[in-house]
Design a protein that fits this description.
Elements: H1 2-8, H2 15-26, H3 33-46, E1 49-50, E2 55-56, H4 70-84, H5 91-100, H6 110-127, E3 134-140, E4 143-150, E5 176-181
Antiparallel strand pairs: 1-2, 3-4, 3-5
Helix pairs in contact: 1-2, 2-3, 2-4, 4-5, 4-6
């Protein structure tokens, strides 16, 4: 079939093309589809540009005919991961990169906006993020800096914590532990996102 023929030419596809093909193969009742999807996702994982806290994809050249950008490609890949491999370790870092790629409350183009919303929505649905139900705690050098509980009603709340320099150790390694747990009656669902900064003056 056409999808199979396209799969044989997958090395010629852009990243977003591979993601589109993986999504299409998922809709086809073909015994070869699962293995082909696995290969495409592995190809995409191998081409990810990863930092300590983010992951994204960049194309070799702009695709003006498809109104594509690297942000759009990253969002399309996130949508594919959400549908086909929601446990992929790249997922949370891709979400973080997309959120930092915004300018104000939006992305640069209508295509970026549309696909970022699709990708992030698919990710939220796949991971159950809006059903967050767990406890969290932050320790700095063994001392509690803050703790709280996330519920579906408070899942969008943001908590800011600050450790004074007097809480840090001099000429020693400082430790920060961010943990989450599920108490009795809690499902443990949802993701815990955080950003950590060290500011010196």
């Amino acid at each position: 079939n056409r999808a199979g023929a396209l799969y044989e030419q997958r090395e010629r596809l852009d990243n977003f093309g591979k993601a589109y093909l993986a999504l299409a193969l998922n809709l086809i009742n073909d015994e070869a589809a699962p293995e082909r999807i696995k290969t495409l996702l592995a190809d995409l994982s191998g081409r990810a540009i990863v930092s300590a806290t983010t992951a994204h994809w960049e194309e070799a050249q702009p695709d003006y005919w498809n109104m594509n950008t690297d942000t759009r490609s990253t969002a399309v890949v996130l949508a594919a991961l959400a549908k086909l491999d929601p446990a992929n370790a790249l997922g949370p870092n891709v979400v973080r990169w997309l959120m930092t790629a915004r300018q104000g409350d939006a992305w640069q183009t209508t295509q970026e906006n549309a696909w970022a919303i699709i990708g992030l929505t698919e990710w939220m649905a796949a991971t159950g993020e809006l059903e967050g139900n767990y406890d969290w705690q932050v320790l700095v050098n063994g001392a509690s800096l803050g703790e709280g509980t996330v519920t579906p009603q408070t899942v969008q709340d943001v908590t800011q914590l600050k450790a004074d320099i007097t809480q840090l150790l001099l000429d020693q390694t400082n430790g920060v532990v961010i943990s989450r747990s599920a108490a009795a009656g809690q499902s443990g669902a949802g993701q815990l996102y955080y950003t950590l900064h060290l500011r010196t003056y």
